[in-house]
Amino acid sequence: MPHPTPLARPRNPYLRLFATPGARAFTLGNLVARLPMGMFGVSAVIMIAGARGSYALAGAVTATGLAATALVAPWTARLVDRYGQARTAVPTTAIAVCGSLALLLCVRLDAPDWTLFAAYAATATTPNTGGMSRARWAHLHGGPSAADAAALHTANSFEQAADELCFMLGPVAAAFLCSALFPEAGTLVGAVLLMTGVLIFAAQHATEPPATPRAPAAKSPVRARGFAPLLAVFLATGAVFGSLEVVTIAYADALGHRAAAGAVLALQAAGSCVAGLLYGSARPARDTARRLVGCLAAMTALMWLPLLAARAIGSLFALGGALLLAGAATAPTMVTGMTLVQRRTPQGQLNEGMTLAVTAILGGIAAGSALGGQVIEHAGPETGYVVPLCAAATALLLGAAGRGRYGAPARR
């Protein structure tokens, strides 16, 4: 396993991290490829609803894409582990880009509704760009030394902050492109950025982890000790995200400020982004499993703030401040959880393991959105904030119950 060439070591951990040869190049490509992940859903909804006049159809199409991604993504990640990032990511991204362009043409040419579902489902082959980037950091800094552990902790924190930033800027960029240019602009620009970013990323061969041909008897990472309890935590955490989004949109709509919902949700992502960067500057935990439980406890405590702001104050401004603070525990939770996923995943299956974690989050987002919508319909948007609070509490209970399994030494 290669290690960074000794260089002058700046005190700032992020400057030290990006002094690693080749790190800046693959990070640039990955960020370009990752930004569209926050653009495609919003772009598709605006494009389809504007052309067909149905938000129900737009929502159903994007939900189908989400479900298809949850099914296909682990298999794509398995191919990445087996054949390498460059050999797999480029063709699978090309298929996904063709799906996005097909969706654009189907909407533009007024094709039958079923073609929209088929085209958007084809985008499920998009590789987990964030997971591939984390796999490169693990390849570069996966050694047993304290310096490697600190560098990997900083890298995981940076990647989580980058996720938050892309999902904060992506919807804003998509909405601007679709409104300022033409309805299909968000999807078109997103497809171009995705393909360009993956090509830049894949071209950085010096930092690419080696392919690991899988033996016929190799087991799924899910069967590794402690992995399933971690997936349960990610599933419940995803429900926090999904319910928080739909409840906030409904709450802003009830106050007559639906257009401001995106900005309010961006505050939650901003809080998480800043917290992630600060967390990366701290020392990695000696007991990572215990740290995860502590992060989940903090997330549960902070999820009281949006509920109190909505029910006791009833101000969108107050809600924005509450979400900004509530987001402070999100990134540390995700960084710590992903660190444990890396440790529990068998060697040669790192992309598959991290993609399974992302798939669990996507499943949780879908479940949280559905449950949040039901509570809103029957009890009102103010009460809807009980759902992310309960989801966070569930994640805490699952994390505490599973700590003995995922906190034990990994079997390699």
Automatic annotation (TrEMBL):
Keywords: Membrane, Transmembrane, Transmembrane helix. The keyword Transmembrane applies. InterPro entries: MFS (IPR011701), MFS_trans_sf (IPR036259). One of its GO terms (molecular function) is transmembrane transporter activity. It holds the Pfam family MFS_1. The chain crosses the membrane at residues 31-49, 56-77, 89-107, 227-252, 258-280, 292-310, 316-341, 353-373, 385-402. Gene3D superfamilies: MFS general substrate transporter like domains (1.20.1250.20). PANTHER family: MAJOR FACILITATOR SUPERFAMILY (MFS) PROFILE DOMAIN-CONTAINING PROTEIN, PTHR23542. This is Major facilitator superfamily (MFS) profile domain-containing protein.
